[in-house]
Amino acid sequence: MTILDTQTTTFTATSGGKSLATAATFDVINPATGRVFAQAPAVTPDQLDEVFAAAQSAFEDWRTDEKARRAALSAAADVLEARAAELGAVLTAEQGKALADAQIEIHTAVAWLRYFATLEIPREIIRDDADAFEEIIRRPMGVVSAIAPWNFPIVLAMWKIAPALLAGNTIVIKPSPYTPLTTLALGEVLRGVLPDGVLNVVTGPDPLGATMVSHPVPRKVSFTGSTAVGRKVALGAAEGLKRVTLELGGNDPAVVLGDVDVAEVAPQIFWSAFANNGQICLAVKRIYAHESIRADLVDALADIASSVKVGDGAAEGVQLGPVNNLPQLNRVRELVDDAVANGARVAAGGAAGEGEGYFYPPTVLDGLSDSARVVEEEQFGPVLPVVSFTDENDAIALANRSEYGLTASVWSKDVEHATALAAQVDAGQVGVNGHGRGVLPHLPFGGHKSSGIGVENGPWGYNSFCDMQVIAGPPRTTA
Ligand code: NAD
Q1: CA–CA dist 460, 197 (Å, integer)
Q2: For 153-189, how does the pLDDT look when each residue is reduced to its tens digit (9 = 90+)?
Q3: Vertex 206 angle, CA 200 and 208, to 5°
Q4: What single string gives the DSSP state of each residue in 217-252?
Q5: pLDDT grade, residue 5 (50/70/90)?
Q6: Ligand 1: residues within 6 Å at CB?
Q7: According to the model, what pLDDT value does residue 1 have?
Q8: Which residues pair with 472 in a beta bridge?
Q9: Which of 159, 160, 157 is nearest to 143 (CA)?
């Protein structure tokens, strides 16, 4: 077993269980330094014919034996768990997140694999009596094209890989060009654990992603990324009438009522907004705080922000690493500068530090109107705007006044009341006294409105990788 090391390892694409040679490579930047530290293979759109052919050919056997699939997924979980420290270090180097968080990401992917490896799929017999037999069968679709973003490359890949493979499909996955290495490593460490061609990994600059959508072989496209690219994926998939699941952007509100204990909720709200530097689709991205507690909440959030250790994710004790890439850093700067130019007060942070690396301190903004760009748009970075309200109906209306509807949360000492308000928010998941509480392998995750189409996770996510088939016939029993 070769130890993965970004200084010495040559990362390769995986096709048909083997490494796929490419004529060119592309640069991978460590966001903590802003410097190139590794190369990734630039698979060309033309090479996808070979990769999809390998996946198509593996499908014929893979689809036949559910028990073998479960055993292979469990074995894959064991291997990933054993390599978590190495994979985590690669993830930190390319993504920026703190090493402990990178390792948690690998372990979370393991948990997802184990969940699907053991997920019971009960038979769906609708009728079985003296007159008729009716059953719904879930059949694999064939080859899946899976495309992932740079914020959680491994977890979000696994949300696709595990259910797609359990259902009997084979898969070709492409990570973001900003974070190619850990997914390439995933493909490499699982060679020989999963049968050849079942899991294929390609990396390369776009238009590789667009070609994965339009290519004739895949029957299903599972995409996680921005709403803008999600629209292109939907259009690209329409031509071949491919099934799509789209997990897209969010601008997730937290509505904080006047009866909360500020000292108790502030740390929870802070980390719901700033974990992974706010680069989480379901991060709290705007707070609506009741005017009676707004100032205290802003102070408490600002105190935490000022105490957080920001630095190279590989360094001991660092809690937040750099922003993942320069365009994203520039976007955060632009949104903060725009808010300040329009009268926002910076309660913490507010300016990028000097020196190398894409660092931006956790920033809390107060005194904004709901029409500020940083409130209306998805910032996807370490900045949190707090907007005041006095009437909770207005707060719910403001929470819903967005093209997005991914997740949300309502915070109050009165759990019944908060739960009733939660049901009024138009989002795929709404937490009560917690944000993202429902992000678990057994619960459906997916957005309303422009936040996506379809869901991942649980039996619902599994079913999204299957075609339904009705078998209807004469009685099979003498009941
Ligand atoms: P992105 O849309 O820019 O890229 C996502 C992936 O799509 C990358 O792998 C990229 O190479 C690929 N891609 C680019 N153009 C393509 C095309 N025309 N066809 C097919 N694929 C193409 O997103 P990003 O910047 O990597 O990630 C951030 C965004 O992802 C944010 O908006 C965030 O909210 C969203 N996100 C959503 C979820 C969710 O579950 N809903 C989870 C994480 C991130």
Answers
A1: 25
A2: 999 999 999 999 999 999 999 999 999 999 999 999 9
A3: 35
A4: S-SEEEEES-HHHHHHHHHHHHHTT-EEEEE----E
A5: confident
A6: 147-151, 156, 174, 176-177, 206, 209-210, 213, 224-226, 229, 232-233, 247-250, 281, 378, 380, 406, 447, 452
A7: 53
A8: 134
A9: 160
The residue with tokens 């590789």 is: 208
Protein residue whose Cα sits closest to atom 8 of ligand 1: 176
DSSP secondary structure string, 122-178? --EEEEESSS-EEEEEEEE-SEEEEE--SSSHHHHHHHHHHHHHHTT-EEEEE--TT
- Name the catalytic one among 86, 94, 247, 456: 247
DSSP state of 46: G
Compute the distance between CA of residue 361 and CA of residue 228 in angstroms, rounded to an integer.
27
Provide the token pair at 47.
């090479």
3-state secondary structure of 282: coil
Domains and CATH numbers, the chain: 13-248+451-469 (3.40.605.10), 252-432 (3.40.309.10)
Q: Nearest Cα to 270, choosing from 341, 228, 319?
A: 319
Q: Model-level pTM? A: 0.97
